[in-house]
Design a protein that fits this description.
Mean pLDDT: 88
Helix content: 25-40%
Number of helices: 10
Shape: globular
CATH superfamily of the largest domain: Bira Bifunctional Protein, Domain 2
Structural class: alpha+beta
CATH architecture of the largest domain: 2-Layer Sandwich
Order of helices and strands: HHHEEHEHEEHHEEEEHHEHEEEE
CATH topology of the largest domain: BirA Bifunctional Protein, domain 2
Low-confidence stretches: 290-299
Number of strands: 14
Radius of gyration: 23 Å
Number of domains: 3
Length: 336
């Protein structure tokens, strides 16, 4: 941890209360000049540090940028032990951790970024990840579970994210099956889970769970192709102090609390409670329900009514012709 990161933690913990350079230097085991340089470095990152004559430094305003030290301090207090890396900009947090795994990384870890230049979504789509408006993170995990069980980690991520957003912002969230987080009738987040399996043993080598959240609407607006469906956690672009750090820490804590019990389905009831398509009519856009897709005697099985979600988070639907089925993957469209 750098001196600047250590100074930041001390200023955050004593916010509104001046702490002298001498006291900081003694506590951190460095020189007063090192403290002064650390304060200047924090100011360059957007933190508003005020020097009060004969009293010391105080943190007036925190920046809304990622700080490894801040997040790690939060996680330490919560008892979460997980390797963490943060980035101002990266190609893709999923791609980074897949590279690490390919190089033999055996630790469970998380990477968090403020911008992705090559963000990826499901089905080969790109994921819009501009600078300044979002939070993007991925977990590298090595669960000792059957491959079929590992698919539930997407559901774990959805529930953890919904819990974290509500905890940090106080706003209500919903989950659109399978794993999209929605607020106020708009999609504010997507989740992409990727895995590597061993052909020889038929076991799971690792999986990467990626989460992208639109915190604010981007200055240039959302691209035309997603403008009708994309939204943001906050509808106005007034930046909040430490929002990215607080949300990242809360999300990691929520996710790991479920993951430590995995494959226990402690998340299931929360998922069902937030799955707002239950009891509504939907259009099945894509589906893996081969039996229904190939049944020529039932031509109208595109429109369906959602009856519920089973213990594997498969969507229980009834089609217009009365046939019922369970969708384990795919996409649905719902009129809100």
């Amino acid at each position: 941890m750098t001196v600047a990161e250590q100074v930041l933690i001390e200023l955050e913990e004593n916010k509104g209360k001046p702490i002298s350079g001498e006291e900081l230097a003694e506590k951190l085991g460095c020189s007063r000049n090192a403290v002064w340089k650390a304060v200047k470095a924090l100011e360059n990152e957007g933190y508003e540090v005020v020097g009060i004559r004969n009293k010391g430094y105080t943190l007036k305003t925190s920046a809304d940028g990622l700080s490894s030290a801040y997040i790690e301090a939060k996680l330490q207090k919560a008892g979460v032990k997980l390797a963490l890396e943060t980035y101002k900009s990266i190609d893709s947090t999923n791609s980074l951790l897949k590279r690490y795994a390919a190089e033999g990384e055996s630790r469970d870890m998380v990477a968090v970024a403020e911008e992705q230049t090559a963000g990826r979504g499901r089905r080969g789509r790109s994921f819009f990840s501009p600078k300044g408006s979002g939070l993007y993170m991925s977990f590298l995990l090595h669960p000792d579970v059957p491959i079929a069980e590992a698919t539930s980690l997407t559901t774990v991520a959805a529930v953890a994210e919904a819990n974290a957003i509500e905890r940090v912002t106080g706003f209500e969230t919903g989950i659109k099956w399978v794993n999209d987080i929605w607020m106020r009738g708009k999609k504010v987040s997507g989740i992409l889970t990727e895995a590597q399996t061993s052909i020889e043993s038929g076991t799971l080598d690792y999986c990467v769970v990626g989460i992208g959240i639109n915190l604010y609407e981007p200055e240039c607006g959302f691209p035309e192709e997603i403008r009708d469906v994309a939204g943001a956690v906050y509808t106005e672009n007034l930046k909040r102090e430490n929002l990215k750090n607080d949300l990242a820490a809360a999300l990691i804590e929520e996710f790991m609390s479920f993951y430590e019990k995995f494959p226990n389905k402690a998340y299931l009831e929360d998922y069902k409670k937030r799955c707002f398509c239950i009891g509504r009519d939907v259009t099945v856009v894509t589906s893996d329900h081969k039996a229904l897709e190939t049944d020529k005697s039932a031509p109208d099985r595109v429109h369906a009514h959602v009856l519920g979600v089973d213990e594997n988070c498969h969507l229980h639907v009834r089609y217009k012709d009365g046939a019922e089925g369970f969708l384990s993957s795919g996409e649905i469209s719902i009129r809100l």
